[in-house]
Amino acid sequence: MPVKNYKKQIILVIIILILLIAIGLGYMTYMLNKIEANTYNSINTVVQNDTKNLKTEIINQKAILQSITSYISSVNKVEEEKIFDMYEKSDITSQFIRMAIMTQDGKTITNDGFKVDYSDEVKDFFRDNEIKIFDNKISRIDGEKINIYSQAVNVKDEKVAILLIISTESYKNIFVNNIFESKGFSYIVDNTGNIIVSANIDRGTGTLINNIDNMLVGNSKEKFEKNQNVIESNIENGIAGERILQTSYGKTYMVYEPIGVNGWALVYFIPSSAISGEINQALLLTFIVSIVVILIALIVCIYIVISNNKKQIKLYEYAYIDPVTKKGNIYYLRKYGQEELEKDKKNLYLAILDVNKFKMINKAYGYKVGDEILFGIGVKLREILGDNSIICRYSNDYFSMIFRYENDINALINTIISNIEKLKINDEVYDLSVNLGLYKVQEDDNNISVIMDKAIIAHSLSKGNVFDKFYIYDEKVEKKIEFESKIEQNMETALRKKEFKIYYQPKFNTKEESLYGAEALVRWYHDGEIITPDKFIPLFEKNRFILKLDLYIFEQVCKDLKMWKEKYGKNVVVSINVSRQHFMDEHFLERYLRITTKYGINPNNIDLEITESAAIEEGIDILAIMKRMKEYGFLISIDDFGTGYSSLNMLQDMPIDILKIDKSFVDQIGKSKRNIIDYIINIAKELKLKTIAEGVETKEQRDYLLERKCDIIQGYYYEKPIKEEEFEKYLKD
Ligand code: C2E
Ligand code: CA
Ligand code: CA
User: Fold this and answer.
1) 194 versus 522: which is more confidently predicted?
2) What is the pTM of this model?
3) What range defines the domain where residue 312 resides?
4) Whether residue 547 has its Cβ less than 6 Å from ligand 1
């Protein structure tokens, strides 16, 4: 049902939405990971560069010192004036603050004319002749932070140390300016973890570990404390490394790299926001935009689903709902009836109810009230049968109900009928007359259409039921239907196999008791038994097989007539029953005529029996047909006369030859005083028609008919219908 679909679709849309968000989130984390990897790469590139530059610079500076000391040792003489002069004239002065020469007593003179006493530290400077770098010194001239490159050199018996003094701050030059938009910061540390210089002035003192400690936030402090000696020992041993820290700048990458000279290392801290900040923002924006797009799509989807669903409900109503009663229609009945059937067959019923002469109600009250009554019936049926029943109006005033009931079904049906027959709508009571057919579903029932058919049969039988307004489908009906369907299956082959045989019932002139002719009556020889026409003719009239059968009988009769004429030289009149079904077919008479010519039979020898009810049927121009019959030379009888209520006027206009008085009137002879037979015979005389009485069984009847001057007699009194061979004995005589 539509409502179910609706939910399904919404759930589907939500699932798709969740999937899309999950994919978005997955993509985001993937991108972030990628960015993190990139961050490491870019940091590493910076660090590698800086390391190389710093290393080169220190090596260069060492080389400068080396070249000076080599010169001094080669000239073997310390000429201060000359050395300073050389220094000042060279292009290296830009790198250093000043140059100094220290004697072994610690007395130091500088190129710019200062005299400083280093006697307290002199041992450090003269320990050996290697180049040493003293870092984190304070200038004794101006208090500036300085690093000192120093090398002792032997000059004759004397020893001096040559000092190149460099501002510690100058190392900052090697750092890439503006690293990561100034959000990152970096240090040079010595192998004990002391900061030599920091690229960012305000963070430049103390030990590295202290610095880190100050930056850390939350529980990352404790975590770091556990790992800090790893960093310390790595730096001490010249091993590179990296860490991710949670600092007051957020997630921060820490990278350290030994430069390979002097036991120094470069340490960098770059907050992830410095690198991925913008990208993160872009990603976030993308994410938000996608969410908005998805939400819009979702709203559109939901809108489409809802409007589709409305359309579906509309379509569903068109397809399954009867507009008048708001109950189901025939398609509803089939669909949900079938489902109900498949669920469970126990105590399941299908009933069909119709309102008799509903047309009259429409005429009397108008269509609006008519519709209200139909609606009211639907409501009442639902009231009686409950919400689980399936109630449909499947055409005009026909309702069908599928329901389950465990108690007395007859009582329930009586309740339904009595309630509908006194239908109350808005305090108005309508007197209706209804019929109901009921079928109880059996275990082997599987098809709603089959069940419908059975209920329809029960309903049609309820119409002919004198004592009750309803009929419950039973075995007998089923047997009859089975038999009929067997007949229908077999009739075509039976015709081919010539299982249909003609019996002739002779007719006698009343007065002379001489043979007048015969009536051809069909019999069906099937599986060793003879089936009489009352079992199959009505069915053949319904399925129109009678057209083929009658034509066959007609031809057989013509064959027999031809044979009799040749054999006995006698022309007898044979009457043949003509079903009303032929009258729908324009050419049937021509077909009959062609057969008579084929066998050389004079149509005068053939009497076509038409029942009175067929002769007065509305909608057929029977008069025209009869006129043609006469034109071709056939005789015409009105069969079963007296049962069809034809008027004298009608009879007058018809070109008929014989009135065939129905057996029911013959049966009355001797039973009631004034006989209709007299009346019929008189009419016939009036119209100059011959009369024949059928079903004459007693001498009393024959005598009475003789007395009343009925012309011909047919009946068991003389002979029953007999086989052709037997009939021939009447021709011999
Ligand atoms: P029907 O045309 O009224 O035929 C007369 C029926 O009365 C025949 O029944 C006949 O056997 C029966 N009958 C004759 N005399 C007596 C009698 O003294 N007492 C009693 N109780 N019955 C007598 P049957 O042969 O069973 O035929 C039944 C009906 O089937 C016929 O009624 C006719 O309407 C139809 N029928 C028979 N053969 C054909 C046929 O070839 N074509 C068509 N269209 N209908 C046929
Ligand atoms: Ca007849
Ligand atoms: Ca008859």
Assistant:
1) 522
2) 0.50
3) 1-319
4) no
